[in-house]
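thought: user wants a sequence for this fold. calling inverse folding tool.
action: design(structure=
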């Protein structure tokens, strides 16, 4: 019998799972090498990280929060979470996407060069997006814009038409809604 689905070794319909984007929040010890171990887990297994932010959040306990945006099928995401939980310096792994609504924000610095009408239009767009001017000259602006990742993408796309020359992004910071702590 010829396998109708060459993607799998088993005859019959393949079990198809959609690739999803997930936000993982990982509480770890703040010590040398922890971030390298977490990143090594992803790279060693061929998983991609779309966004990564990390900082110490509990100074007295020396704990850091790593926020990771990654993509995969539900099975791959579960595998990532279980592998993260097995790392020694990891205290807790939360899948903020699976838990429901989380708050996600990002900061971007956007440099735009232009004169005349394009300069005025860049200022108008910045006002609409509540972007702050943090540096300026006769020929350029640097805007600071914060918000959901989609808002940042839209702002960058609009500025591309108006003289965008450089972008620096922080990556996504996320936290679960409600009274529960990490």
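)
observation: tool returned 182 residues.
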């Amino acid at each position: 019998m010829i396998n109708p689905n060459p993607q799998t070794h088993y005859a019959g319909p393949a079990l198809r799972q959609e690739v999803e984007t997930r936000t993982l929040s990982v509480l770890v010890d703040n010590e040398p090498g922890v971030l390298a171990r977490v990143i090594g887990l992803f790279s060693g297994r061929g998983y991609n990280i779309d966004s990564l932010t990390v900082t110490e959040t509990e100074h007295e306990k020396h704990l850091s929060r790593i926020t990771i945006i990654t993509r995969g099928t539900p099975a791959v995401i579960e595998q990532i979470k279980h592998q993260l939980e097995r790392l020694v310096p990891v205290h807790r792994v939360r899948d903020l996407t699976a838990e429901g609504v989380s708050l996600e924000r990002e900061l971007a610095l956007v440099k735009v060069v232009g004169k005349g009408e394009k300069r005025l239009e860049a200022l108008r767009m910045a006002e609409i997006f509540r972007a702050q001017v943090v540096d300026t000259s006769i020929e350029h602006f640097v805007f600071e814009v914060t918000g959901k990742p989609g808002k940042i993408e839209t702002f960058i796309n609009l500025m591309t038409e108006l003289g965008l020359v450089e972008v620096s992004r922080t990556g996504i910071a996320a936290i679960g809604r409600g009274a529960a702590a990490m």
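thought: summarizing for user.
answer: Here is the designed sequence. The chain has two domains: 20-100, 103-175.
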